[in-house]
Specification:
The protein is of the alpha+beta class and 141 residues long. It contains two helices and eight strands; from the N terminus they run E-H-E-E-E-E-H-E-E-E. It has an eight-stranded mixed β-sheet with strand order 2-3-4-1-5-8-7-6, covered by helices on one side. The protein is globular and about 35 Å long.
């Protein structure tokens, strides 16, 4: 395993929240992407116009190896965010095989939200909710 990250989801205020965290932790964005930056992907419907200026993915380094990820998970896209589902543990695997093994293990008895697949940003990535209700994202880059 290369890294573990906490991912936070918001109802449209990710940019505001991450600007707040940026000031608190005295850091700068490593990445900030918006839904309008996302290219079309086979099997995924395009994002509605109402979310184009919302955050698809933000990254803030917090010091050392610690990273904070964030995105807007909106009802318009079928992913309403509520307290309890507004975070995920993100694991960065050392190999595709390790990513698959972790994903398959954690998804046993749980729910696959996004099967492992190659994503437009170059990562092999998937998401699931384990049988205890904990959300996980697994990636290999």
């Amino acid at each position: 395993m290369k890294n573990m990250v906490i991912s936070l989801n918001f109802n449209g205020c990710t940019e505001e929240a991450f600007n707040f965290y940026k000031n608190v932790f005295n850091t700068e964005f490593r990445v900030i992407q918006y839904f309008k930056d996302m290219p079309p992907m086979e099997g995924f419907p395009p994002a509605p116009d109402s979310v184009m200026d919302k955050v698809l993915h933000a990254e803030l380094p917090l010091g050392g190896d610690a990273l904070l990820f964030g995105s807007d998970s909106l009802a318009e896209m079928g992913r309403a965010t509520t307290a309890g589902n507004n975070f995920a543990i993100s694991l960065d695997a050392s190999s595709k095989e390790e990513a698959d093994a972790i994903f398959n293990g954690l998804s046993e008895g749980g729910k696959v939200d996004m099967p492992m697949a190659l994503m437009f940003w170059g990562a092999y990535h998937g998401a699931l909710t384990d049988k205890f209700g904990i959300r996980w994202t697994i990636a290999f880059l």
